[in-house]
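Protocol step 4 of 6: record predicted structures for both targets in the notebook before any analysis. Target 1:
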Amino acid sequence: MATELSPSLPRQAILNLILSLADDELMLGHRDSEWTGHSPILEEDIAFSNIAQDELGHSLVWFTLYEQLTGRSPDAMAFERPWNEFTCCRFVTYPRGDFGYTVMRQYLFDEAEQARLHAFGHSSVEQLREISGKLLREEAYHLLHSKGLVERLGDATEESHRHMQTAVDEAFPQSLGLFEMLDGEEELIKAEVFSGNNAIKNQWLSRVVPVLTTATLNVPVSHVNGSYSLNVKADDGGRRKLHTQHLKQLVDDLQQVYRIAPVAKW
């Protein structure tokens, strides 16, 4: 894989994109790991522990690409930045909530990953094309798991339906922050780096709305003239580093051991 970008490509905008991907995966992986030892059944305890490891591994893939292009190591990016310098969306930073919320967050994120990584398969950036092909194979298993849970829990019992509907009401507006416009995104679209977050969001809606509806869950959208219109405001701000205190707490936990011995070799 090439370790430098073509001079004709918008370098800073691409770096912004890569960093947002790495930060999203890092924070979601950390939140998922909080279920280790606390999931409602052993099978899900193991599943979410594995998913957390995968998400952290995917963040390392993106951080490694960032290092190849900038010289800044994954450890420096994950453990040495202050919390208000991360560019993750707010969605992945919120507390784990109950299991229904975690399942819904994972499902909505997994569908966004599918749409985004498929878009990268046609990117003008060689590195994005190569990485997306590798990550899609693992992400497919994440989606299979989270989608299956949503479908089963959505209309399994009155109680499970209530929990999952509450999860939709909370997580759906938050998840729209995954598609917040990046700094330099117009350059990325023009250079055919990817199709842009709005296009990916529309593909995502075409996937998640039918699944949630089939699971008897109400989604705050309208379907007009063959496309979906949102009836809620997106929880944006993360891409512009406008975070809540939830991220500060998360980063404090994440960096705690590293701060004790920052030059240690593990």
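Target 2:
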Amino acid sequence: MSLRYAIGQRPPHCVQQLSQAPCRAPIREGDVRQSEWATKKKAVQPGFGALGGGIADRFGSMALDEAIRPVTVREGDKVSEIPAMQALLRTMFRAAAQGDTKAGRQLLEVIARAESGRTGTALEILECAVQYKEKYAPIFEKHEREGLGPLDIFPHPDDVIIDEFTGEVTFEGPMSKEQAGARKAVRQQAIESFRRYFEVEAALAKDPTNRALRREFKELKKYQEFLKQDAERIERHEALRLSRRALETKPHEPHTAMPGSKHDG
């Protein structure tokens, strides 16, 4: 599985755990006294909030439903369906392009907020990814040195790939125990399909217009692509493991004097 984290998408659970701030100490019963001010009745201002939030919640839900509702738009001779919110933004861009300064100012504010949020999210994901690798890489390395079985921790630190130039974080591998089990099953099925893959490939060479063979070959080809990506992942893990071993500091070896040297007593 290859997962390139998209801006605005919720971070995977393993990354969310690292980004959570430490919880405050729980408040024990008796530590908090209700103040006299809090017990006094306060006048409630009219509005949606005075109705217990029910209408406000429904109103917000309706607004969101309407924002994503498909609407039909025509651009020249082309008719298409897009979300209502997208249609509204297009109308605003069109108005701004025609000289509507208010629409242009509103669009710039929306874009600035979106860009700020995207940058903040990207930095948070990058920090969490670095912390994740620093925390779990030594654990996996120790486990492998001791010849123990695979850990039930996902993703594998070497599957969290950080682009050093852009800071983009990519996940290349299973993100859960269930996905790891599914990959194992698919790997076995892909290996078993090798023979059939070459049989269908040879049959297609003789009958290239055979639709049934073409459909089957298309499905079999997915297994071959999976095995190729799986092999690349294994090679990456091994290369990273060897590079870590090569960078390890070796213990200092005591100098052994050669016979006849000036260090002999």
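Step 5 preliminary note on target 2. Residues 1-16+59-153 form one domain. The longest helix spans residues 101-145.
Proceed to step 6 after PI sign-off.
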